[in-house]
Structures are given as C-alpha cells and as structure tokens.
Amino acid sequence: MRTRTMVSVGAAAVGLVATALAAAPVASAAPAASTAVQCETNFVCLYYHSSDYATSHGGNYGAVMETAANISDFKDWYFYKSAYGSDGAGLSVKNHAAYVTNWHPTKTYRVYYNSGYSCAYACQDIHGASSADLNSQLKNNDASGKFL
Description:
The protein is an alpha+beta fold. Helix content is 22%, strand content 19%. The strands form 2 sheets. Strands 2-1-3-6 form a 4-stranded antiparallel β-sheet, with no helix packed on it. It has a 3-stranded antiparallel β-sheet with strand order 5-4-7, with no helix packed on it. The radius of gyration is 24 Å and the shape is globular. The chain starts with a helix and ends with a strand.
C-alpha cells in the first residue's frame, strides 16, 4: 500500500512539472544586429584585426572592445561583435588587439605592452580623433591602456 501511494505521488509530481514546462515561455535571442558594438565620442575602441587585414577582407576589423576608462590589465576585458565583424568575439582583449580607434576629440590614448601602464618595453600613442594599427611590438601583445 505504501509503495502504491509513493508511485502515485511521484507520477503526479512528474505530471505537474511537465505541465509547467509546456506552459513556460520560450526565451529568444536578440537579433545579431542589435548586439553589435559601435564606438562613440570620447571612447576608444580596440579591434581584433588590423586595417591591413580589414582592407583585404571587405572591411572586417573583427570584434571590438569599447571603453572610456583607463584599464591597467586587459585580461578581464573581452571583445564583442562589432559593426565591422565578429572574428575574435568572446576573446580577452589582452594580447589579441591589432587596431585602435580613438574617438576622444582631444585626449591621446596610450596602449602598453605590459600590464600596469608600464612602457618599459613598448607603448604606442593613438592621438585624439585618430586610428592606427598597433606597431609590431604591440600587435597581439597589448596588456593595458589609458588616456593621457
């Protein structure tokens, strides 16, 4: 008798769960176009691909990381799909950037080879309202960046 009661209660619970799941709304992903990041005034954007790559691949600069902050270590910052491509999306920016666009009209943005804004080995300035490929020492070897 006790076994029959437990089986009945178990069957009823499974039925309730199945009914709840069938009635639950289905989650949908946002359209890809609405998730693409584009740079804005006073921000700097680091891209996954260089301008040389983009020129030979239909303008595909790949994924982007946009910031208006000084970042002492890019390791916890990630690339997101951009209006110019998604190659590199989800990767850490640290040691993966190739191109920088500085949308600040007057401030220079400096990219450093080392974390902690150390220019002991290499660094590169991207002047306000300009863009540049990272030099051979910094391309895919970037670790930090800040506005000067």
